[in-house]
Input
Amino acid sequence: MSSQQALPLGAPASAPQQRVTPHNLEAEQALLGAILFDNETLNRITQQLRPQHFYDPVHGRIFAACQEMIATGHIADGVTLKERFARDGGIKEIGGAVYLMKLMDLAAPLSAQAQSYAELIYDMALRRELIRVGNVIADLAENPPERHDAKDIIEEAERTLFTLAESGGANKGFQDFRTALTASINVATAAKNRGSDVSGISTGFRDLDHLMGGLHGSDLIILAGRPSMGKTAFALNLAMNVARIKQKALQENPEAEHLGGTVGFFSLEMSAEQLATRILSDFAGIESHRIRQGKIDKDEYVRLADSATELQMLPLHVDETGGISIGALTNRARRLKRTSGLDLIVVDYLQLVTGSGKTDGRVQEVSEVTQGLKALAKDLQVPVIALSQLSRQVESREDKRPQLSDLRESGSIEQDADIVMFVYREEYYLSRAEPEQGTEAHFTWEQKRAAVANRAELIIGKNRHGPIETVHLNFHGQFTRFSSIAR
Output
């Protein structure tokens, strides 16, 4: 039972005080006065500022008028604004011509501080919007829409807050060609200074790096294959390589933090513990099934413990949420980027990511997911590797090497991807088609299998930035490990 005393009957509770939202009218007046005094001031302040960011609607109208007039080559001062507002009958709403002249007199000596005023006004507007969002979230929590649970509200809150945090940065608009050329030259210079042809993030696979120049920000890379080809193993090896390069670079040379990268791995099918076991198996050189079954001796256990100690600070983050929506995936990737940094995203796998539920049919849903992943790659400027299943029509062909048309819901996936890679292991199919022993066919089969034993092909089926080729790799099945072929 609560020990709190009830209010006496007839004694009304004191009414809550009206909250005054953050604002600074003096800064708004000073900025407007500076613009009216010197129109060039408008070009020197932050481009993020909009009329709706002003607390006083009158100030917002004056700022909008200044923007429009200056953009069309007209002078914006007390006289011209008086005529403009007199024509539309709004002169009284802004306080008349006297108020415009007062603004100019107030801020004439303060035009040098205009940028500071603009930043203050913008900050106040963000704080007011933050309060509004908080109230909306509280209202949604108290009165949730039909078929929306707490997780849906949290995802919507995260999405809204991120949009607010990034406001002004996402809509970059046009940039002159000089800026684009400078960025291109910087990429080429970075590659030249490294003394290699890898200008992006190294995958740890020599021939793949040589073909692609590493992994590049804003690219959506599809890694596809039939079951048991090793899609997850290859993606995990690549993620491990990227994170391991960064870990070693930070340990040996803190200034080389640009090498490797922090990885976000969305594992929709396997648990984080299963992924960690695979990584430990590879790093310690102990078969994963023996680790899971506890069939390791004392020396192997020590090796396993040492490996875990060495890898515990690996910049690899795993999200094992099954059936995650593209909206939640995007929010979590952005949050990781803000809190820990993020250089590579891996999604295992594409067909398990759900859409918003607003599309009709599976094809439209997959299209929504691939478009969302591509937008995420461009927004965060990181490469996104999404694993994808292939249709069963591969099994009906004599040559089972996959093609672009084998992608499930291939239209949207092929269209949105910058690079499409297929994992193919001929040994897998040969091992399941063994002829009768002692026959000539069995002898031929043994020769073919020996030629492809422990080998894999990484077939580049689409590459917007380079040639379409096949990269040959080693595959160590007992450790689910891919590696470059020794030269």
Q: What stands out?
A: The radius of gyration is 30 Å.
